[in-house]
Amino acid sequence: MKSWRTAATLILTTPSSNTRAICGRKKIVHGCFSTNYAVLMLQRSSKNNFFPNAYVFPGGGLDHADVTSKWLELFDNIDGGFVKHLDRLRLDPSMRTTSPMMLCDAASSPDNLPPDISYRICAIRETFEETGLLLARTKVPSDEYMLGKKTLYARTFKFEDSDMAKHWRKKVTKDAKNFLKLCHHFKCVPDIWCLHEWSNWLTPICKGMKPTKRYDTIFYKAAIQSLPEYLVQDNEEISGLERKNPESFLEDYFNEECQVGNPQIYELLRLVNMSDHEDLITFFVNRGKEGLERYLPLLAVSLDSYPVALYPGDEDYQFGFFPDRRNSPTATELYKS
After folding, report:
1. N or C: which terminus of the chain has fewer CB atoms within 10 Å of its end residue's CB?
2. Which SS3 state, helix, strand or coil, does residue 202 take?
3. For 292, which DSSP code?
4. For residue 137, what are the β-bridge partners?
5. Are 50 and 212 in contact (CB under 8 A)?
6. What pLDDT digit, counting tens, does each position of 6-23 carry?
7. Residue 108 zone, left/alpha/beta (φ > 0; ψ -120 to 50; rest)
8. Residues 6+ apart with CB under 8 A from 46
9. How large is the C-alpha radius of gyration of the chain?
């Protein structure tokens, strides 16, 4: 798996009334898919080399600063029982389907944090860098040592003012090591308890794609009561920030009004199956205890020249593009729709 960089993404939802606008365009998503919550998505900058202009969930690549054992000192200062009960924070692999991402340390060193914790820190840090939203708490709750235990809403750290948030956001974006310094300064810890395992995606393989642009990404799911007013894109990697019902994003995509990646479309389609936010929370908290399977979409071309994304379980999955196969049966093997 050296061709893929490890990364973490956060699917974040908040309570919301349904505000889907369909006037003046074709309605594609059926009206029965109507949710009472919104999902946060970011639009990548046009200057970005990877997936420019596309809408994605907050997240990014794992940094060494996310896996350093120095985090243990911080957690121990907040609550002396954290390090003592560190093993209890890790879901038992024998009781679930475990992604290969969780079977070894993310940095191949026994001195670093377990991946269950480091990937959560990564997702929280990247979300802060890209949006200014910091999921953190000042106390480790004694009844929530086990990741996956029911924790309905994440804690949002409140800065004194937007300038303070902007100051620390700039420092963390410049150097990921400053995220640990931020937490020491404010005597808080990333709210890792509120992030629940949701899915694991490999970047689809495309001809001409550089190995450094492939990601092995764990998707976490979390919910918050509301978004801070100072939330704003970083205007570097991210050019826009939107909070809408998942069906609204799907309408935009199917009406060709925005670009959205295959994993993001798949996950938005999963979300609209649950119309009530509280039901969604109950589902993802319980689902997170079941572990993860890793998915790799494969790209193919139909006989009428349309690109097709194939997933494990699809009848034609075997006909997808594999870079190590000289005669990949893409266009000639797929039936016309």
Report:
1. C
2. strand
3. -
4. 189
5. no
6. 999 999 999 987 554 444
7. left
8. 52, 53, 239
9. 20
